[in-house]
C-alpha cells in the first residue's frame, strides 16, 4: 500500500487533465510499501521490491480466477449434467459485479485522490484502439440485446438466467468502455496493490468471457439441431440431439416470425465482435496494470509526436483499394452461395485463389520493408515501453491461431489427396499463410522498435505553433500558412526519400490488405470449416474445437496488425 509521501509543494488535485506529452509535476512521490520488504535500507529499493511483489500477488489472483472459470467451462463441455451453462453464467455474473464495483470505486475514489495520476503514458491507449473498444463494445451491446429478445420469445423453454446474464453484460460493457476511454493512459500512484488486483480481476473476467464465447455457441447449435431434425424426419430417422442443449430442444424452436429470425440472425452476425471486444479490453487493461506505480521521466516523453498524414503515398492505397474491392466481390459471391445452400466447389476455388494471389504480395512487401529497415540509419528505441512490449506479445500470440490451423490443414491434405485441384489450393493457401504471418510480424516488430522520423516540416510547424502562442495570429498570416501547407502537400511526394516513401507505400498497402482479411472471416466466410476436408479427416467435434480456438485469434491478429502497421506508417 502507498506510503512515505515526500512533498514540498502541493500540485493540482486533478493531474490527469495534463496533456500526455507534458511532463507533470514530480515534487510528490508515493513510494510503495510491502510488509515482506519493510526492512530494506533504501526507500527506492523497497519501492522496487514492493512493486514486484504487488505484481506477483495480483497475477496469482488472476491465475486462480482463470483456472476456476476454465474448470467450470470445461466441466460444462464434458459433463453438461453436473455443470450447466447457467452455472457458468452465474459465476461470470458474480465476477462482473465484483469488477463493476472496483471500476466504480476507481472512477469515484482512486482517480480523484490528490496526486493519484501524476503521469500519463503517451503510448498507451492510442485513439485507434480506444475507438475499437467503442465500436466493438457497441456491437457487443447490440448482440446482448438480440440475445435478450431471442430468449424472451422462447421464454417457455429458456432459463431466466439467459435474460439476466446479457443484462448484466450490457452494464459491464458500458462501464468498462467508459473506464478505458478516459483512464487507459493513467499511471496510478496511490493504492497500488488494490488497483493491480482490480485490474487483474477485470482481465481474468474478460479472458473467461472470451473463452466461453469460443467454446460455446448455443444459438448456432440450436439452428444446426433444427436443420438436422428436419432432414432426419424427412428421412424417417430419430431426431438429432446435442449435449449442449436441453432435452426439450425440439420444442424450443424459433417461431416462424420475422422478429425471431431477426434476433437469431443478428446474434450470429454480431457474435465475432464480442470475442474481439474481450481481447482488446484485456490488452488495454494489461498496459494499465504495467503502468501502476510507474514514474515517467522527461526523456520518456516525446516532445514532438509524429502525426498521421496521407502525403507521399500513391501506389500503396491504389493497390490496397483494388485488393479490397476484389475481396469484397469474392466475399459477396461466397456469402450468396453459403446462405442459399452449401457452397459449390467453384466458389471455394475462387476464394482460395484470391488468397493465393494476395498473400505472396503481402509477404514480398513485408520482406522488402524489413530490408529497408536494415538499410536505414535510424537508431533503435530501447526505452521501456509496456505498450510496445504487449504489441509484440499479442502479434506473436495471435498469429499462432492461423499458423496452427494451417499446419492442421497441411497434415490433413498431405495424408489424403494433395493432387486434387481444391486440395492443392488449400495446401498452397496454408503454406503461404504461415509465411505471410511470419514476414509481417518481423516487419511490424522491427518497425515498432525504430525511432520515429521527425520531418523538418513538423519541426517547423511546432516552432510556428510556439511562436503563435507567444504572439497572436492575424488572418493574413493564417492565409499564408494555409498556402504553405497546400504547396507542401503538392510537392511532398517528390521530396520524400525513397526509403521513407517505400515504407509508407508498403505499410498502407498492408493496412488495407489486413482490413479485408479481417472483414471476410469476421462476417461469416469460413471455408476452413465448410470445405469439409479437415472436418472429415479430424472429425466434427475436434475440428470444430480447433476452428473455434484458431479463428478468433486469426481475426484478432488481422485487427491488431492494422494498428501495428499504422504505427510503422506514422514513424516512417
Automatic annotation (TrEMBL):
Topology with respect to the bilayer: Multi-pass membrane protein
GO CC field: plasma membrane
Domain of life: Eukaryota
Residue span of region Disordered: 1-25
InterPro entries: Otopetrin
Composition-biased stretches (Basic residues): 7-17
Molecular function terms from GO: proton channel activity
Protein name in UniProt: OTOP3 protein
Protein species of origin: Stercorarius parasiticus
Gene: Otop3
